[in-house]
Amino acid sequence: xxxxxxxYGTSVISIHDGSVPGEIESPxxxxxxxxxxxxxxxxxxxxxxxxxxxxxxxxxxxxxxxxYSKKSIDSKQESSINSDxxxxxxxxxxxxxxxxxxxxxxxxxxxxFSEEGEILYYEISGGYLNEMINGKGLISKCGVVSLTCNEMxxxxxxxxxxxxxxxxAGLRHKATKIKEKARKSIEETLGxxx
Length: 194
Known about the structure:
The protein is of the alpha+beta class. The protein contains 5 helices and 15 strands.
């Protein structure tokens, strides 16, 4: 499983000649199937707008993405990507998330996808302060009712799951852990329950 936030800005390297045709700039996403079709690249050697199809990627590593050759990349002119998919990719980060009853849940900050490009989870932030206190929530692909360039609608039950599933613990979770450790330490020191 990969997180988009971890590969944003990652260099793409050709195995054939070691060249760096660009860096990952934005995803191209099929909103209907919630699948990553590829990535738009930016870089000195390729003008912005070059497209790397997901199936042309040999390996997604921690610090680099490998392709067989520069021929794996479509230039802006030869790219036949769906404009809706490109627009969805450009707007996914920062996209407002609302429940079916229109309750504001925050915005998409990242997403997780499989080796096949299938989006598995969306990372949601309820704002900086909320994120500090509660952490970032995860919404499963199954919890998404609709995904457009304007908003993501999720099931009411997906909101409840998001309150439990977190990518990064917030202060509330950390304070609870510290309180529990302190309670155990006091019990051990006193030789039983306080």
